[in-house]
UniProtKB/TrEMBL annotation:
InterPro entries: ELMO_dom, ELMO_domain-containing. Residues 91-239 form the ELMO domain. It holds the Pfam family ELMO_CED12. This is ELMO domain-containing protein. Signal peptide: none annotated.
Length: 239
């Protein structure tokens, strides 16, 4: 893929003919694609087919001027990004409990402030203190990953693939950092599309309203793969 020209707020992108990949679903078919093997599970291919650009011939135009659907979904995503985690809000408390039981379905949670949270990779007894960098959407991302692609989520949580270090990265905190990284990379809070990456993501968003959450899951898998390739340890994790 490469940028060829720019006309009236649109960029034309040369792309290869797309492979025959079925459309993604965030329900039964997504769970079925979340196979038990290490490596890249099938849902990554399916998820990327959902959020990649719809190709129409040799060139695909990515327009910076938003369609009504893109504007609606972008504003909804921006709203999610601006919500701070509030430990006193009931819906935030319930989301935190939902994350626990999606992660450990057979283990009772003693409380929202508990040493149990350290098992998931939070820095202390109170996970609410770790959301400050990315807000409530980082909890939503973790919960989406846990519920939609539970097998891959559990493999990363339990460090089941590859030769692992004695001291590994803290899973939950890494998840919050990934949300923050994606928000910075996409530059969605700016009023205009200043980067090609953002323009491509807006196109993704028009194809699938869960594009941000899907991108998060893929980024988490990529991060873990790079961690293994570098033989990294806890001391190299950037909080």
């Amino acid at each position: 893929m490469g940028v060829e020209r720019n006309h009236g707020g649109c960029m034309a992108v040369r792309s290869l003919p797309p492979p025959s990949i079925p459309k993604c679903s965030h329900s039964a078919s997504a769970a079925n694609a979340d196979d038990q093997t290490c490596g890249s599970p099938r849902w990554i291919e399916k998820g990327l087919s959902c959020v990649c650009m719809k190709r129409k011939g040799t060139y695909e135009r990515i327009c910076i001027n938003l369609t009504p659907l893109q504007e609606e979904r972008l504003q909804r995503l921006k709203h999610r990004m601006n919500v701070y985690f509030d430990a006193l809000r009931r819906e935030h408390q319930e989301a935190l409990r939902a994350l626990w039981y999606a992660t450990y379905p057979n283990k009772e949670l003693s409380g929202l402030i508990s040493d149990q949270w350290k098992e998931m990779g939070w820095q202390g007894r109170d996970p609410s203190t770790d959301f400050r960098g990315a807000g409530f959407i980082s909890l939503e991302n973790l919960l989406f990953f846990a519920k939609t692609f539970s097998n891959s989520f559990q493999r990363l949580l339990n460090k089941q693939c590859g030769k692992r270090a004695t001291w590994e990265y803290p899973f939950a905190v890494a998840g919050v950092n990934i949300t923050f990284m994606i928000m910075q990379m996409l530059d969605l809070q700016s009023t205009k599309a200043r980067t090609f990456v953002r323009a491509v993501f807006i196109q993704m968003l028009s194809e699938d309203e869960w594009a941000f959450d899907l991108l998060y899951c893929v980024a988490f898998m990529v991060m873990d793969k790079q961690w293994l390739e570098r033989n990294a340890s806890y001391m190299e994790f950037n909080f």
